[in-house]
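Module 6 notes. Inverse folding takes a fixed backbone as the condition and produces residue identities as the prediction. Think of it as a translation problem where the source language is geometry and the target language is the twenty amino acids. Below is one complete input and output pair. Work through it position by position during the lab.
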């Protein structure tokens, strides 16, 4: 269907009061519809992140991303709540790697809702700066239909890619029971080449270490394979009762690291590892670093409508197993042990969340939602550092025995280091939010949430560097201190409606993030065993509405955030180990806008953007900075937060002849320059501004559609993230180079 009239309403459920047009909600919300995702051929969050004002995504490769909303950028527990349907899937990280947020593929998604600003009242402590909700389509009870899409493309500096995905909606009992099945399988070729695999390996010949011929070159190591599926069963025995059972599983594999050493930068070297200079999309690691990611999300949601309101009860399980590996040779080189080695970090995370809430639909000026929430999470992490061979692969299995120690018995032992870490958290919360329609124009809202959390854990050093001291006990658990945190978050909102053309609102809201437990670093410099919570207060003024009889929609807001006792990733003075701590206060001032219009027949245009000024208002003292030069000082900008970013989208869809329809589209995203670390940090790498351009052109004939597309048309080396420390030397992360392809869809 071609729309030529006013812009379409976009319905959201973010307030938990019920469905509402996004333009009627007095808050900063952006919704990206499933129709937009299909038009853009979006398969993951990176495909549409540039369309969302105030959102930045820091990435270290597949399945390893951190979301940043309104400049609240920090390691540790997530500052952004992430939901898949009703399931909580946000994930933090205070060890190696990046954000570790999962990247479930966006096929047959109804919409993505992005709520900017603290959402602590309705969504809890993890929603400190905002919430992202991925909402799949639910089964239709009355008709059978579906689609299949085949996509092929080619990436410059890479190779051929493919993508197959489809959906089937199948009523089992008409208007009572239906099943919706979605599946996807894709392959993206790698575009980063590893140029010195196996370098530095030696073998003992007559007691003398002799260099071994290395493998040397591997092409496209960061290729990615992803397969997954989703099933949702909907049962509606009566008009007022709906039961949904859902199950999603996804498995991903990447052949190697996406980081690359830029031209002119000399990579680490030592021993028989010769110095090497980086080049365009060249990885200079000496070991292979594959990545594996398996996740499952499943649960049940019951909705019961009464004459007073709607009761919703939902329970969900999120399980994730990741196999994260990285080249630990530079760490050893920094300690004058120039031996190639790989760190293996298998992780297991299980999280169960349950929520019961009741939202009234009273025929009165006052309505409210109240609820209770519980979440229990367990995490297991192992860290094994092993020697590698001339192929860049581990020379043997991990061993806790001193006889296998690679430092004590060079050329014989396979194991440098090992530890395990087990942590458990249990959260409880009660929340409520009320809306009072004072007059036809004035509305007030207020809400609060009480949150309490308990953290426990233990760690085991399974193989210390150099082996266990003689006579010392081995594999003895070291129990973390029990930590408990609690907090009350609250919000207040006042709005005034001038009519359909304008809704003015003012909001004050608080956000909260729990503290956590650090991992051990002994026998090296000890780190604090725990770190404290941080919190913020957001002051916001916004206006949104429809103009020109609905042919133009707009949202504009400005905000001020005070961030206290902020959690940051700190580094030991020698730069070798990182840990989580609290360091000072920060302030963020910003503005966001989102404008959509239909200026002429068949053409839809949108422009969205944001300005952010995020900086430390109280950083490290002179003494603290002297002891640890990686700390930020007062006035330092918060890392990975651009001052300015914007997105422009155009879609022109019109009839051609007969049943033929033509469509053209463009998407242009700009991100300003950022710092990868605090600007006073000697390891900081300034990252340049970049612009990404996507184009598409297609035709639709009845149930067939064919689309030609070009992503990253200008082949930009967008500097999306960077890594730099003693243990992770200078490297950049970029987006997929120019990719040109064709997608064919058949609906039935």
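Target side of the pair, the amino acids:
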């Amino acid at each position: 269907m071609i729309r030529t009239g006013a812009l379409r309403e976009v319905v959201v459920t973010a307030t938990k009061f019920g469905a509402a047009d996004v333009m009627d909600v007095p808050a900063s919300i952006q919704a990206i519809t499933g129709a937009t995702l299909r038009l853009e051929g979006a398969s993951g969050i990176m495909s549409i992140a540039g369309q969302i004002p105030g959102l930045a995504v820091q990435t270290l490769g597949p399945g390893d991303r951190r979301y940043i909303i309104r400049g609240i950028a920090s390691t540790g527990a997530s500052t952004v709540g992430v939901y898949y349907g009703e399931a909580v899937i946000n994930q933090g990280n205070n060890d190696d790697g990046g954000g570790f947020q999962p990247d479930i593929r966006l096929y047959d998604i109804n919409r993505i809702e992005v709520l900017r600003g603290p959402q602590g009242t309705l969504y809890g402590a993890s929603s400190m700066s905002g919430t992202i909700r991925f909402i799949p389509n639910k089964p239709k009870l009355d008709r059978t239909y579906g689609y299949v899409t085949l996509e092929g493309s080619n990436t410059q500096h890479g190779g051929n890619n493919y993508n197959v995905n489809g959906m089937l909606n199948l009523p089992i009992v008409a208007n009572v029971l239906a099943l919706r099945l979605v599946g996807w399988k894709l392959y993206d070729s790698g575009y980063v080449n590893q140029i010195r695999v196996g370098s530095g390996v030696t073998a003992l010949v007559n007691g003398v270490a002799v260099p071994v011929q290395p493998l040397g070159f591997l092409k496209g190591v960061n290729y990615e394979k992803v397969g997954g599926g989703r099933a949702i069963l909907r049962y509606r025995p009566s008009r007022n009762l709906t039961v949904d059972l859902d199950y999603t599983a996804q498995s991903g594999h990447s052949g190697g690291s996406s980081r690359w050493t830029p031209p002119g930068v000399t990579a680490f070297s030592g021993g028989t590892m010769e110095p090497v200079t980086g080049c365009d999309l060249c990885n200079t690691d000496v070991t292979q670093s594959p990545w594996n990611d398996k996740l499952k999300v499943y649960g049940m949601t019951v909705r019961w409508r009464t004459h007073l309101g709607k009761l919703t009860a939902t329970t969900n399980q999120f399980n994730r197993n990741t196999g994260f590996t990285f080249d630990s040779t530079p760490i050893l080189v920094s300690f004058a042990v120039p031996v190639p080695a790989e760190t293996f970090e298998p992780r297991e995370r299980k999280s169960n969340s349950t929520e019961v809430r009741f939202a009234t639909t009273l025929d009165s000026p006052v309505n409210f939602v109240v609820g209770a929430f519980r979440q229990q999470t367990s995490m297991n992490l192992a860290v094994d550092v092993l020697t590698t061979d001339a192929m860049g692969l581990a020379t043997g299995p991990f061993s806790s025995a001193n006889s296998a120690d690679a430092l004590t018995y060079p050329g014989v032992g396979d194991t440098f280091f090992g530890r395990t870490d087990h942590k458990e958290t249990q959260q409880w919360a009660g929340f409520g939010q009320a809306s009072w329609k004072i007059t036809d124009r004035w509305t007030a809202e207020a809400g609060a949430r009480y949150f309490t959390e308990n953290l426990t854990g233990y760690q085991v050093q399974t193989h210390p560097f150099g082996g266990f001291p003689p006579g010392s006990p081995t594999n003895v658990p070291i129990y973390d201190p029990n930590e408990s945190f609690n907090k009350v978050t609250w919000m207040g909102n006042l709005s005034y409606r001038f009519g359909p053309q304008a809704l003015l609102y003012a909001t004050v809201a608080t956000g909260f993030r729990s503290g956590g437990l650090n991992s051990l670093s002994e026998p090296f410099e000890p780190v604090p065993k725990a770190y404290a919570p941080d919190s913020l207060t957001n002051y916001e003024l916004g206006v949104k509405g429809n103009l020109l009889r609905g042919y133009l929609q707009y949202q504009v807001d400005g905000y001020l955030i005070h961030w206290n006792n902020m959690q940051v990733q700190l580094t030991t003075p020698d730069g070798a180990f990182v840990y989580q701590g609290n360091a000072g206060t920060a302030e963020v001032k910003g503005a966001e806008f989102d404008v959509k219009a239909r200026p002429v027949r068949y053409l839809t245009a949108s422009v969205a953007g944001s300005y952010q000024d995020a900086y430390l208002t109280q950083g490290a003292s002179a003494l603290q900075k002297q002891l640890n030069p990686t700390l930020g000082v007062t006035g330092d900008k918060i890392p990975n937060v651009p001052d300015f970013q914007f997105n422009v989208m155009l879609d022109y869809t019109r009839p051609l002849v007969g049943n033929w329809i033509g469509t053209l589209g463009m998407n242009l995203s700009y991100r300003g320059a950022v710092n990868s670390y605090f600007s006073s940090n000697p390891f900081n790498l300034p990252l340049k501004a970049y612009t990404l351009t996507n184009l598409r052109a297609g035709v639709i004939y009845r149930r067939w559609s064919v689309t030609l597309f070009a992503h990253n048309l200008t082949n930009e080396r967008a500097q999306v993230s960077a890594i730099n420390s003693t243990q992770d030397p200078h490297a950049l992360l970029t987006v997929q180079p120019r990719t040109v392809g064709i997608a064919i869809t058949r609906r039935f």
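Reference fact for the lab report: The first helix runs from residue 34 to 40.
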